Amino acid sequence: MMGVEHALVVHCAGLDELNPIGDAEIVEVTQNGYRRYILTPEELGIPRCTLQDLEGGDADDNCRILRQVFQGGEHCDNAI
Known about the structure:
The chain has a three-stranded antiparallel β-sheet, with no helix packed on it. It has one domain (6-78). It is α+β, with helices and mostly antiparallel strands. The chain has two helices and three strands; from the N terminus they run βββαα. GO terms for molecular function: anthranilate phosphoribosyltransferase activity. It comes from Aphanomyces astaci (Crayfish plague agent). InterPro entries: Anthranilate_Pribosyl_Tfrase, Glycosyl_Trfase_fam3, Nuc_phospho_transferase. Keywords: Glycosyltransferase, Transferase. This is Glycosyl transferase family 3 domain-containing protein.
Protein backbone atom coordinates (compact mmCIF):
# COMPACT_ATOMS: atom_id res chain seq x y z
CA MET A 1 0.00 0.00 0.00
CA MET A 2 2.82 2.42 -0.78
CA GLY A 3 3.77 2.88 2.89
CA VAL A 4 0.25 3.64 4.10
CA GLU A 5 -0.80 1.68 7.17
CA HIS A 6 -4.37 2.95 7.54
CA ALA A 7 -6.49 4.98 5.12
CA LEU A 8 -10.09 6.10 4.69
CA VAL A 9 -11.54 6.60 1.23
CA VAL A 10 -14.68 8.75 1.45
CA HIS A 11 -17.42 9.53 -1.06
CA CYS A 12 -20.42 11.60 -0.03
CA ALA A 13 -23.08 13.22 -2.21
CA GLY A 14 -20.76 13.42 -5.21
CA LEU A 15 -17.89 14.93 -3.22
CA ASP A 16 -14.64 13.31 -2.11
CA GLU A 17 -14.99 14.44 1.48
CA LEU A 18 -17.17 13.92 4.50
CA ASN A 19 -20.04 16.41 4.50
CA PRO A 20 -23.54 16.75 5.99
CA ILE A 21 -25.32 16.69 2.60
CA GLY A 22 -25.96 12.96 2.64
CA ASP A 23 -24.80 9.51 3.66
CA ALA A 24 -21.07 8.91 3.27
CA GLU A 25 -19.73 5.69 1.81
CA ILE A 26 -16.45 4.94 3.53
CA VAL A 27 -13.88 2.29 2.70
CA GLU A 28 -11.40 1.78 5.52
CA VAL A 29 -8.18 0.22 4.24
CA THR A 30 -5.55 -1.42 6.43
CA GLN A 31 -2.69 -3.79 5.74
CA ASN A 32 -5.06 -6.63 6.72
CA GLY A 33 -7.75 -5.75 4.17
CA TYR A 34 -10.65 -3.37 3.97
CA ARG A 35 -14.16 -2.82 5.25
CA ARG A 36 -16.93 -0.74 3.74
CA TYR A 37 -19.59 1.12 5.71
CA ILE A 38 -22.05 3.99 5.56
CA LEU A 39 -21.90 6.96 7.94
CA THR A 40 -24.79 9.40 8.23
CA PRO A 41 -24.73 13.00 9.48
CA GLU A 42 -27.28 11.99 12.11
CA GLU A 43 -24.86 9.42 13.55
CA LEU A 44 -22.48 12.32 14.20
CA GLY A 45 -25.22 14.50 15.67
CA ILE A 46 -25.13 16.87 12.70
CA PRO A 47 -28.25 18.03 10.82
CA ARG A 48 -28.28 17.53 7.06
CA CYS A 49 -27.82 20.48 4.73
CA THR A 50 -27.82 21.17 0.99
CA LEU A 51 -24.95 21.85 -1.36
CA GLN A 52 -26.09 25.47 -1.49
CA ASP A 53 -25.61 25.67 2.29
CA LEU A 54 -21.92 24.86 1.77
CA GLU A 55 -21.29 27.42 -0.96
CA GLY A 56 -19.10 30.35 -0.11
CA GLY A 57 -18.58 33.54 -2.02
CA ASP A 58 -15.87 36.12 -2.40
CA ALA A 59 -13.02 36.48 0.09
CA ASP A 60 -15.03 38.74 2.40
CA ASP A 61 -18.01 36.35 2.44
CA ASN A 62 -15.77 33.37 3.12
CA CYS A 63 -14.02 35.23 5.95
CA ARG A 64 -17.38 36.08 7.54
CA ILE A 65 -18.57 32.47 7.20
CA LEU A 66 -15.35 31.09 8.71
CA ARG A 67 -15.62 33.45 11.67
CA GLN A 68 -19.20 32.26 12.23
CA VAL A 69 -18.01 28.65 12.18
CA PHE A 70 -15.28 29.37 14.75
CA GLN A 71 -17.83 31.12 16.97
CA GLY A 72 -20.33 28.25 16.75
CA GLY A 73 -22.65 30.32 14.57
CA GLU A 74 -24.90 29.78 11.59
CA HIS A 75 -22.60 27.61 9.45
CA CYS A 76 -21.03 25.63 12.29
CA ASP A 77 -22.97 22.41 11.63
CA ASN A 78 -22.01 22.51 7.95
CA ALA A 79 -18.28 22.35 8.70
CA ILE A 80 -17.03 18.93 9.65
